[in-house]
Amino acid sequence: MKLATARLQSSTGSRTAAVRVEGDTLVELPFTDVGALLATPGWQAAAAQDGPTHSADGVRFAPVVPRPSKVVCVGLNYKNHIQEMGRDLPEHPTLFAKFADSLVGATDDVVRPAETTEFDWEVELAVVVGTPDATPVRRADEDTATAAIAGFTVLNDVTCRDWQFRTREWLQGKSWDSTTPLGPWLVTPDEVGGTRPALKVTCSVDGVVMQSDTTGDLLFDPVDLVRYVSTMIRLNPGDVIATGTPGGVGHARKPAVYLTGGEVLVTEIEGIGRLENHVASETQP
Questions:
Q1: pLDDT tens-digit profile of 90-125?
Q2: Which of 2, 87, 102, 179 is the most buried (most CB within 10 A)?
Q3: pTM, to two decimals
Q4: What ranges do the domains of the chain cover?
């Protein structure tokens, strides 16, 4: 099953709605977005119900979960990326946070802040949390963590490297407004081989492939991450865990390569979907 948050237009204006994606048809569900759907007990049955239909042609998608209570990100989780950054393999996941205001939709502009000169790309598989009964997840064991994965989506952890490395904490390089595309939809685990999928991930800039790998190279897989994160803090329906990026980031190239504005950034994961975002340069404040 594929679920998305669509921006629908009508004579009374625009609105968002959770939809089930069936090829070129969107089946509207009685929820404002996928986050609201996942917060409903028995959401799988609710997602399968009939509703008004729309052509997908021309419809733009919001972030699949527009306002998650948290976005937890994992750094240094692909072996080749760890090596290209000159680091040792970690014993535990390296975690940082993003905020909902950093999220944009599948074809929205990614806004390059005026304050950075080192704007970089990072394709990532993202886990979307959602238990069958819509309860929060805390201190999950293997089975609970597996059941808590509602599905997967695509994320690009676009990063201001110069701000990221100002200190030993990464958050200030990772949470800029309108920099993180998320979507276009949530794909349930049964469509991608389960909760530990091995899927090809790619990122290209103006048609040039910069990153290409498989999620089978993850050091800590989605189930591991749900278990680890939920040990510390509850995971609510619709929360997102970004699982990390493979090698090929601009910062690690010699010489380094960054997004300067005007590029087309394409982020794609096999079996899940594709983001296509124009990089827009913010005017100096």
A1: 899 999 999 999 999 999 999 999 999 999 999 999
A2: 179
A3: 0.96
A4: 2-61, 71-281
